[in-house]
Design goal:
By secondary structure, the chain is an alpha+beta fold. Helices cover 38% and strands 19% of the residues. Helix 3 packs across helix 4.
């Protein structure tokens, strides 16, 4: 690896492996962002950073960790996706496919009119997407004060996903952003198509998680009513 790569990214310590460092340097060289990276979140499977581009706009850089990801869980989930049925159980292949899957799911959700960050590029275990926020990233739902209108908008987005034969699969107050009182759904790596055997299970779980949060902040909501709205039934 060229010395300049190590020098530019050495401040990130043990966060990145050498393979990821080389790919970050390549993406920077291609103009997708400029160093330094600012930490946004450290998740179970990925680290999330923000960075500026040459035009001054910010992007989000999501980096799946090659050595500590639960790739066995990823493999069990992704092989149920028709697009990845032939994937081999190889750690890097699974993580690379997982990253690509999130990129594709974001595109499909956006095409369906769901409020999501625009996916910009992916490369191996790195996903680059639109930055949602001003100087700081938009707060998550769990850290926001919201009302019933915000809940309605959230359900509307869930319905648009359902109309596109998709379910988020991991929806909660942790992956809904509050951007100027509008919900933005993020983290689409587990998004699943209707033909999957897990579709109904994931939909029920998403509804349960969303309702649980809004009841926690004092907004009455019934899970069966939400399901009916998502399925397009009047109540």
């Amino acid at each position: 690896m060229p010395k300049i790569t190590r020098e530019k990214f050495k401040t990130y310590g043990n966060v990145f492996d050498g393979f990821t460092l080389r790919n970050l340097f390549k993406l920077e060289s291609q103009g997708y962002f400029e160093e330094p990276l600012t930490p946004v979140a450290l998740g179970k499977e990925a680290n999330v950073f923000s960075a500026k581009r040459k035009d001054g706009k910010k992007v989000i850089i999501k980096i799946y960790r090659l050595e500590s990801c639960d790739f066995n869980k990823m493999f069990d989930l992704i092989r149920c996706d028709d697009r990845y049925q032939n994937i081999s159980k190889n750690r890097r292949n699974v993580i690379f496919a997982w990253t690509q899957r999130e990129y594709r799911n974001l595109h499909k959700a956006r095409e369906a009119g769901v409020a999501v960050p625009t996916p910009l590029h992916f490369f191996h275990n790195i996903l680059i997407e639109e930055f949602i926020g001003d100087e700081e990233p938009a707060p998550k739902l769990k850290d926001s004060n919201v009302n019933r209108t915000f809940l309605k908008k959230t359900i509307d987005n869930m319905k648009k996903l359902n109309d596109a034969d998709l379910v988020h699969g991991d929806l909660s107050s942790f992956n809904i952003l509050n951007w100027r009182n509008d919900p933005i759904l993020i983290d689409f790596s587990q998004t699943t198509e209707r033909k999957s055997m897990h579709f109904e299970e994931y939909l029920e779980r998403d509804i349960s998680n969303v309702c649980k949060h809004f009841r926690k902040v004092g907004i009455k909501i019934d899970e069966n009513d939400v399901l009916k709205k998502i399925m397009g039934k009047n109540i």
